């Protein structure tokens, strides 16, 4: 547990002790995101940068998620030649705000639609409405950081 003290006159509580920010190597980043869950996809939707939360699975060093056919990311990918990719970023994190500790992993690479005949790890969309478009992000860069008390 982090000891806290109150700043005089502000009513704000600050953590006591020092936090350290450390870089994570590629293997540790992959280990942290391997269970799957929810991440955020960052891309240009034609109107500027945007971020969309998606549930995903990790398939080797690639990330697979699904989206609706009418979704902006899918529409951007649908206009490409077969096999072409769009550069996107994908971020997953886990933080304990009470302890002010956690980690963040950023994956950057090329995303493309999967053809119906291509196999991939199965990801079941959380929303009830259909998400038939399957997207694969092939990692080019995987970086991460951990914040902790040491």
From TrEMBL:
Family matches, as InterPro entries: Pyridox_Oxase-rel (IPR024747), Split_barrel_FMN-bd (IPR012349)
Protein name: Pyridoxamine 5'-phosphate oxidase family protein
Residue stretches of biased makeup (Polar residues): 7-22
Residue segments, region Disordered: 1-22
Membrane-spanning segments: none
Pfam hit, one: Pyridox_ox_2
